[in-house]
Amino acid sequence: MSKKVRVRFAPSPTGGLHLGGVRTVLYNYLFAKKHGGDFIVRIEDTDQNRYVAGAEEYIFDTLKWCGLEPDESVQHGGAFGPYRQSERKESYRQYAEQLVKEGYAYYAFDTPEELEKMRQTPIATGNKTEHGHTQQYDHSIRMKMRNSLALTTAETQKMLAEGTKHVIRIKVPEKETVSFTDMIRGEVSFDTSTVDDKVLLKADGMPTYHLAVVVDDFLMKISHAFRGEEWLPSAPVHILLWKYLFGLENMPQWAHFPLILGPNGKLSKRDGAKYGFPVFAMRWNDPKTGELTEGFKEKGFLPEAFINLLALLGWNDGTEQEIFSKKELIEKFSMDRVHSAGAKFDYEKAKWFNHEWIKRFEVSNLRFEVGELLKQDGFVVSNEAFLDKVIALVKDRCVLLTDFVQQSSFFFKTPEVLDIDAIKPKWNEAKQLFFAELIRNYELSSGWDAHTLENNFKEIAAVNDLKPGELMLPFRIMLVGGKFGPGVFDIAEMLGKEETIKRITMAIKVFQ
RNA sequence: GGCCCGUUCGUCUAAGGGUUAGGACACCACCCUUUCACGGUGGUGAUACGAGUUCGAAUCUCGUACGGGCUACCA
Known about the structure:
- By secondary structure, the protein is mainly alpha-helical.
- Among the domains are: 88-212, Glutamyl-tRNA Synthetase, domain 3 (Alpha-Beta Complex), CATH 3.90.800; 420-511, Orthogonal Bundle (Arc Repressor Mutant, subunit A).
- It contains 19 helices and 14 strands.
- β1, α1 (19-34) and β2 (38-41) form a beta-alpha-beta unit.
- α15 runs antiparallel to α19 and α17 (468-480) packs across α19 (497-511).
- The longest helix has 16 residues, at 19-34.
- It is elongated, with a radius of gyration of 32 Å.
- The chain binds one RNA strand through β6, β11, β14, α11 and α17.
């Protein structure tokens, strides 16, 4: 009997949540839900220097918008708290001390200056001193540094007793092969001689990621540990810690997701919107710089489309299906169909996903968002039934939610400027007379539906020996203001008799 | 530089030894539509390179090249 599936997303609250982060959340979430497990969010705030106000709150807001609610977290509670690493500070030291006691780690007293000097020391591996090579704090140099391995026991005890600032480093064995099975990449192995003695416990008593992730994954009974590929190089450290602390048999199964690349490599939080597309899920307001970065939400993406597009960036179900609801994703997701290669983000395709979702969405699902957008732009939306009809009429031509404003503004407000250039050259007296007659006809019209409106329009055109086609565009410009929008007669029907006639009348004057 | 991961149309990907290498986005053409879209039909376009294993390789192995990641008392 296998243990319960428990996965975690462990962000550090230092800024906005970008595409890669959300996809990591998504895959964690899908995997958990697929296997009836728990999805946990653990805040990794062990670096006090990088604290950013509001970032934690922002992460949860983003998850909520995406529809990826955790089962356990700072906000959702749970039996394995606290879910903020800074609040677990006390528990880490004992594990680090245990490692020292057992000979798997050691105290290091080196000052930042000494470390800097060490990095400069040219290393002669073989016989060449390569440019750009930085010396790592590893087996080759640790006996020359100031740590409990190189110092005598008495010296170490004295420094400890005096309260000398120190860290605890892992003592990576020299010639071992550490390997593990990655759910996506298969067997991955490392020669420990190339792994450095990472700091486990910092001078301020806080653990580094390396110690914290292992301890917390154990304490929180995490069954599967998923994270981005950028963590692969430090995996041997974590494997070693599991071996020393809790036993390899208790270690979660690992999967390292491929990176999502921008035009210049890995997407990073700092890239903001400089690529011409958002990198954050939602708007991020950096309290330090005051910089406001818009996200996919503000850009007009539906959360359903957003997670759909993210899911397909590195995963597919083996069929040609591309549009998946969250329910379907949960049903069909499987880790062995996740790609191992990084994926370059394609904003055009992202927009296509959103367009597909808008087209497929029921009007009632769009009503609220579209209504808000229109109000934001100063349009008065008083009648919900009318709004619904408008949405139904224009949604096929809206790629982003924000397109609704431009596509439907003329339903709510008489256009202020008309695209006269499209009409003027071909405007003549015959056409003017036609529209005058059209006004009279429409005024007397008893029925006001697109069909009769169109019939009457064409009848009058025929009687006056005019081509309906040449009159449709002017009519459109009169009602819409430009060369876009749904069928003209549908628009006229929606606008109603009074408004339609008003717009024709006004336009005739403008065209003269 | 070292270590690790990766490499199929411009982009996302399918094809887990035998296919005319399939689909989607984008692009182009035509049809539909006397607006713009939607929709429909068709088109351009890819297995990085070199060896090997095999009757047969995009698929397995090795090398090379290229790309990416990591190389902090950051995650």
